[in-house]
Amino acid sequence: MIRPLGRLALTFGALALLAAPASAQQGRGGFGFGGGSMILLAPNVQKDLKLSDEQVGKIQDTLQEVREKHADDFAGLRDLSPEERQEKMSALNKTIGGELKKALALSPEQSKRFDQISLQSRGIMAFSDPAVAGKLKLTDEQKSKVREIAEASRGQRGAFNKDASQEEREAARKKFAETSKENMSKVLATMSDDQKKAWKELTGEPIEIQMPRMPRRPGN
Q1: What is the secondary structure of the chain as a DSSP string?
Q2: What is the pLDDT of residue 168?
Q3: Residues 6 or more apart from 42 whose CB is under 8 A from it?
Q4: Which residues contact 3 (CB under 8 A, 6 or more apart)?
Q5: Ramachandran angles phi, psi of 137, nearest 5°
Q6: Rounded-to-integer distance, Cα 120 and Cα 96, Å
Q7: CB hemisphere CA count around 87 (13 angstroms)
Q8: Residue 108 to residues 101, 104, 112, 122: CA-CA distances in angstroms?
C-alpha cells in the first residue's frame, strides 16, 4: 500500500503531466502542479519557512484539499494552446498559492519566502510566466531563448520512469538537477545586470529543495 505522502505526490505528479505540454514537462526545473505547493513537503523548505509544528501538521491535508478542489481546473488546461495554457496555469498557481497561505496561516514573512522558493522551484519555466517576464522586462529575444533552452532539454524523463530501479531514479534526479542548473545559468547569461537584480529580488536566497523520497509501489 502506498503511504499518504506517496499517494499525494503521485497524484500531484500525474496532474502536472496532464496539464503541461511535452516541452514544459521535459524542460522545466520545477514541480508543475500548483507551482510551490509540492515544495511544502520538503523538510528543509519547512525549516527555511520557519513553520510551526502546527503548520507542518496541516500541510498534507491542505494539499489534499487543494488537489481535490482544482483537479478539474488542471485537467481543462490540456486542450488549450501553449500560450493560453501558460496564462491559465500562472493564474491558477497564484490562486493556489493564496489558498495555501491562508489555510496554513502563513505570516507576511513566511508568505514572502514561500513565493520566493515557489518561483525558484519552477526553474526556467518561471520566465515563461507573463507576470515574471513583465517584472524582468524580458525582450522577445530572451523569451525565445528560454523556449529554445527548454526544448533542447526534452527527453530527460528518467526520474519519472516508474519502472526504473531506485539507483536509476537517483541518477536521473541528479542529472535532471544538473541540467536544470545549467539551463538557469544559460538564461541568466542573457540578462542585464538590472534584470539579474530583479530576479534576485523575486527569488531571494537560493535553496536546494530536498523532497522526501517517494515510496515505490509494491513490485516495482
Answers
A1: ---HHHHHHHHHHHHHHHHS-HHHHHH-SS--TTTTTGGGG-HHHHHHTT--HHHHHHHHHHHHHHHHHHHHHHHGGGGS-HHHHHHHHHHHHHHHHHHHHHHTT--HHHHHHHHHHHHHHTGGGGGGSHHHHHHHT--HHHHHHHHHHHHHTTT--GGG-TTS-HHHHHHHHHHHHHHHHHHHHHHHTTS-HHHHHHHHHHH-S-----PPPPPPPTT-
A2: 80
A3: 209, 210, 211, 212
A4: 215
A5: 55, 50
A6: 16
A7: 5
A8: 9, 12, 6, 22
For cell 534576485, what's the residue?
A: 200
Residues 6+ apart with CB under 8 A from 52: none
Instruction: Write down the pLDDT at residue 216.
Output: 53
Taking a C-beta distance cutoff of 8 angstroms, is the pair 145, 185 a contact? no
Report pLDDT for 36.
Answer: 63
- What does the pLDDT read at residue 86? 76
pLDDT digits (tens, 9 = 90+) for 99-157: 999 999 999 999 999 999 999 998 998 998 888 999 999 999 999 999 899 888 765 54
Weakly modelled stretches of the chain, pLDDT under 70: 1-36, 154-162, 213-220
In angstroms, the CA 40 to CA 49 distance is: 9
Residue 119: all three cell numbers together: 518561483
pLDDT of residue 52: 97
Altogether, the residues listed in the chain come to a count of 220
pLDDT recorded at residue 152: 84
